[in-house]
Amino acid sequence: MSEAKPFCISKWEVWEAYKRGKANQGAAGVDEQTIGDFERDLKGNLYKIWNRMSSGSYFPPPVLTVKIPKADGGERKLGIPTVSDRIAQTVVKSRLEPEVDPLFHPDSYGYRPGKSALEAVGQARQRCWRYDWIVDLDIKGFFDNIPQVAACLPGAELTVLEEAAHLSVAELPNRFHDTVAAFLASLKMPASS
Question: 103-140: per-residue pLDDT in tens?
Fold first, then answer.
């Protein structure tokens, strides 16, 4: 008896995500598994990711937190996911990005396909000649408040999901996983025999 998976995620999607992850050569996560270690059982590891994602049983492992010194003497936390989780995140990103990117403001340059920090600086330079004022906005602790932001802004969940997929945030609140699960459930395709 053959039972269809509840999420239509192809093995090809997982393979493509692996190839992108390998090209980036990221560091090992909390499991200390490198790309080389992962490749020792490549077929089995990719199958495990595909099987868990397509069956709806995938749950991301903890993220390794590394503190990076800042120029001002402070520290910035950097989250390093496992190799497997980077592949899974890339699969999700490839699904989310085309859906949510059109919702972003044209002046949003962070972590967007085809946009760069250099373009943002160029746009700021042009506007310096047109305006004699500037607004500098930095929302400290933004990711500490994701559930409140998502609840306040209709449709914001998708925007926040897209940003989270790009940033590999180490300390997302557990309540946020419900939002991710709800979005993935909306991708569910009818089972075919």
Answer: 888 888 887 888 888 898 888 888 888 877 776 666 66
Does residue 12 carry a pLDDT above 80?
Answer: yes
Answer yes or no: are the C-beta atoms of 76 and 169 closer than 8 Å. Answer: no
The amino acid present at 131, given as its one-letter code, is: Y
Three-state secondary structure string covering 62-131 = CCEEEEEECCCCCEEEEEECCHHHHHHHHHHHHHHHHHHHHHCCCCCCCCCCCCCHHHHHHHHHHHHCCC
5 token code pair: 């998976």
As a whole number of angstroms, the distance between CA 190 and CA 96 comes to: 19
User: At 135, is the secondary structure helix, strand, or coil?
Assistant: coil
Q: Which of 63, 107, 77, 96 is nearest to 163 (CA)?
A: 96
Q: How far apart are CA 58 and CA 179, in angstroms?
A: 15
pTM: 0.64
141-193: pLDDT as tens digits: 655 555 544 444 444 444 444 444 443 333 344 444 545 555 555 555 333 33
